[in-house]
Design brief:
By secondary structure, the protein is an all-alpha fold. It contains 15 helices and no strands.
């Protein structure tokens, strides 16, 4: 089970989303609450909740928002049943990825507020940083760019203090969108460049399509827009998205 979970997460993050879905489905099929929940204290969190969180992200990326929302809801429900702080923070921080992209900003914000409060109680810098960055993404999509800049910038600082580099391409992309929204285009371009560099260094390619789309938007703004460069970025974003298009025969929602 754990092997399939880790393989599923690995394929997801390098952009092989459909392959990741296969392994996460297998991991979920092998999970037994009675047998595996007591192991949460050994591994730091409950594996079933972890699988649901990342399968939710995978399903959304594959184009199944209803199935993604179902997994996210179930992950939070199970985490609350288990009552372990680490598992609760895991679910409260990761599932908002699905909620915010499904347009449910209210649920995303409520969970992230709970996550930040719990992380502060437990002095869990890692989870507080992640929740702050997630909350900043909600602000970007809610047309609150100034709030987003404060949260994402602070969150990235805390994130880096833990030694983590995961998800930096994602949050730098959102930070670029926030800077662009308030007209700070040099900072927006800087963030896009940092996101590209981070993605190339870590091969975290699951964000590649969105990063290229955002890059195209940024180069069209300002006094000297570059349509040719923007077109290149948009074509690259489409090519990546089409590569990750699911096979209907193998990736139908559960």
């Amino acid at each position: 089970m754990i092997g399939h979970r880790l393989m599923g997460m690995s394929f997801l993050h390098v952009g092989e989303t459909a392959k990741g879905r296969v392994h996460l489905d297998r991991a979920m099929g092998l999970y037994n609450a009675t047998e595996h929940r007591p192991l949460a204290t050994r591994f730091g969190h409950d594996s079933g909740v972890s699988i649901l969180c990342f399968r939710s992200m995978t399903l959304w990326l594959l184009g199944y928002p209803e199935a993604a929302r179902k997994d996210a809801d179930e992950a939070v429900t199970q985490a609350r049943e288990i009552g372990q702080a680490a598992t609760s923070m895991y679910a409260l921080v990761i599932t908002p990825f699905t909620y915010l992209h499904c347009g449910d900003y209210e649920t995303a914000n409520a969970q992230l507020a709970d996550a930040i409060q719990l992380a502060e109680q437990k002095d869990a810098v890692f989870w507080k940083a992640w929740a702050m960055m997630q909350s900043g993404c909600v602000d970007v999509l809610s047309s609150k760019p100034a709030d987003a800049i404060d949260k994402i910038t602070s969150g990235i600082g805390l994130w880096r203090s833990t030694g983590s580099t995961l998800y930096l391409p994602l949050y730098l992309t959102y930070l670029a969108r926030a800077f662009a929204a308030i007209g700070e285009l040099d900072n927006a371009r800087r963030c896009i460049g940092e996101a590209m560099t981070a993605m190339e260094a870590t091969h975290e390619n699951w964000i590649e399509a969105e990063l290229n789309r955002a890059a195209g938007e940024v180069v069209l703004l300002g006094a000297q827009p570059d349509p040719a460069r923007a077109e290149f970025s948009y074509h690259r974003a489409l090519a990546v998205a089409r590569h990750n298009k699911p096979n209907p025969g193998n990736s139908a929602p559960p």
